[in-house]
Amino acid sequence: MSKKIAFVFGTRPEAIKMAPLIRAVANAEHFVPVVILTGQHPTMAKLVLEWFEIEADFSHVIDRTNPTLNSLTSQIIKNANDSLQEAEADLVIVQGDTASAFAGAVAAFNLQIPVAHLEAGLRTNDIYSPYPEEAYRQMVSRISDLHFCPTVLNRENLLKEGIPSSKIMVTGNTVVDAFTVVNAKIKSSEIQVHVPEGIPESDLVLVTAHRRENLGEGMAEIARSVKSLSTNYPNLTFVIPMHPNPAVREKLIPELDGMSNVKLIEPLEYPEFISILSKSTLVLTDSGGVQEEAPILGIPAIVMRDNTERPEGITAGGVILVGASESRITTAISNVLNDKSLLASMSKAANPYGDGEASARCISMLDEFFGLGERNLEFESAN
């Protein structure tokens, strides 16, 4: 009898990283996927699933009249609880460090359903930075039965916390799997990419900003940075897909609206985002996922955070960490743009996040967990 593997998630980045594994589970002989959308970012998550031709089995709505983390997580726990019981799930997979991941894992744990953590072992070791993500991922680790780690460093983090090696596997990051599928279809013209009007084919700087710790003055610093840079580099076009959060928009729009070489656009579908990223000279971001996607393409990344749970990109030489300070952001980008050798070396930095086969490795660990086969350790041994 097939095992039901439930995927609980609610944001666009989760959907991107879950989609390749959902497809792999659907194609596996002994497993059936059950897709549960928590409603955290309903429209953006559904758009990703549509592109990967995945349908949700359960799709929840969040009441946002009380927009607090406690309200969000309590609603997700209840909704996930109900869906998991109805689906009679044999194992639950959560991804990363979102409220959906944390609440989905708690719901599964309380039902005594085994939990697998996709993208496990990332750490800053400061539970308030990033807040609340660092605490969420640490707590998910404590109640997970399987840990799919993108890198060897992630595995080492978990071993230091006393998690048995038998529960850990280095798989690579499924974001590379997702990118590989998308990029191949873009290059073969299997899909048509519709980039918003007014965005040139080159000389782009892609900017993404949404982190909770940057809301308020941090977002204002980012807006002033882009304004200053766009004035100093009129030959470059700064493209900003704006996050739906009003706290992001209220800082970016007044400062940047009307500037000729700044394009404030609505959130992009994943193929369009990859297309613009691939044409960019560099990316300015506070996103975790973009820190992983940029090295795949050899795009230098300037990260507007005080610390990162993804130091592999910094070690490889393709990422610079600067924080959300106008002076540090503008200085870092000017240094990269004005130093052609630095720009070239960052562009050639190795991608530390895998080879696009992470989903297959996760399936092999699921096979082992259910007594259906042995895990594939070749990638872990090679790294």
Explain what you see.
The chain starts with a strand and ends with a helix. The protein is 47% helix and 15% strand. It contains 16 helices and 13 strands. The mean pLDDT is 93. Strands 3-2-1-4-5-6-7 form a 7-stranded parallel beta sheet, with helices on both faces. A 6-stranded parallel beta sheet has the order 10-9-8-11-12-13, with helices on both faces. The protein has 383 residues and is an alpha/beta fold. The protein has helices spanning 12-27, 42-51, 69-87, 99-110, 133-142, 152-160, 174-187, 217-232, 246-256, 270-278, 288-297, 312-316, 326-338, 340-347, 358-369, 378-382; strands at residues 3-9, 31-37, 58-59, 91-95, 115-118, 146-149, 168-170, 204-208, 237-241, 262-265, 280-285, 301-303, 319-321. It is globular.
Please render the helix and strand layout as text:
Layout: E1 3-9, H1 12-27, E2 31-37, H2 42-51, E3 58-59, H3 69-87, E4 91-95, H4 99-110, E5 115-118, H5 133-142, E6 146-149, H6 152-160, E7 168-170, H7 174-187, E8 204-208, H8 217-232, E9 237-241, H9 246-256, E10 262-265, H10 270-278, E11 280-285, H11 288-297, E12 301-303, H12 312-316, E13 319-321, H13 326-338, H14 340-347, H15 358-369, H16 378-382
Parallel strand pairs: 1-2, 1-4, 2-3, 4-5, 5-6, 6-7, 8-9, 8-11, 9-10, 11-12, 12-13
Helix pairs in contact: 1-2, 1-7, 1-15, 3-4, 4-5, 7-10, 8-9, 8-13
